[in-house]
Amino acid sequence: TIRDAWAPDGADGFVYSVDWDGKPIVRERVRWPIVEAMGTAYALYTLTDDSQYEEWYQKWWDYCIKYLMDYENGSWWQELDADNKVTTKVWDGKQDIYHLLHCLVIPRLPLAPGLAPAVAAGLLDINAK
């Protein structure tokens, strides 16, 4: 659950893995889970109007802005350690943009008819927040 993976060791971020009891196994924080979660939180908020999803979405954006965005070289950092410092323990290098689309594009498209058909139909809202 979110509560198992988000900051289970006291530091913000999704840990890479937890055991069955929610105890962190690999405490590094990699980029793709949080950006996928952001797209999901936005979709759930859109469908349910439940403010907890909007709060998670905004909390995760704030985290990404603070820790994951590489303002010097562009793009986003792939991995942070347990103290939210850049590391390469799990993977070395910069990732492609695939996972970032979930937090950058999903909020700008209607949930139906799906991502590709919505883009093809010109439904991308470039002014969405």
Folded structure, characterized:
Belongs to the N-acylglucosamine 2-epimerase family. Keywords: Isomerase. This protein has one domain. It is built from five helices and four strands, in the order αβββααβαα. It has helices at residues 2-5, 31-48, 51-68, 100-104, 115-120; strands at residues 17-18, 24-26, 29-30, 79-80. The strands form two sheets. Strands 1-2 form a two-stranded antiparallel sheet. Strands 3-4 form a two-stranded antiparallel ribbon. α2 packs antiparallel against α3 (51-68). The model has no long low-confidence stretch (mean pLDDT 89).
Compose a concise summary of this entry:
The protein is mainly α and 129 residues long. 40% of the residues lie in helices and 7% in strands. It has a two-stranded antiparallel ribbon with strand order 1-2. It has a two-stranded antiparallel sheet with strand order 3-4.
Main sheet attributes: strand count, strand direction, barrel closure:
2 strands, antiparallel
**What is the global morphology?**
globular
Counted up, domains total 1
User: How much is the average pLDDT?
Assistant: 89
Topology pattern, helix = H, strand = E: HEEEHHEHH
Could you list the spans in which at least 5 consecutive residues all have pLDDT below 50?
none
Report the strand count. 4
User: What percent of residues adopt helix (DSSP H or I)?
Assistant: 25-40%
Alpha-carbon distance between the two ends = 26 Å
Contiguous helical run count: 5
Key features?
isomerase activity; single chain; globular; isomerase; mainly alpha; 129 residues; 6hp_glycosidase-like_sf; AGE/CE; two-stranded antiparallel sheet
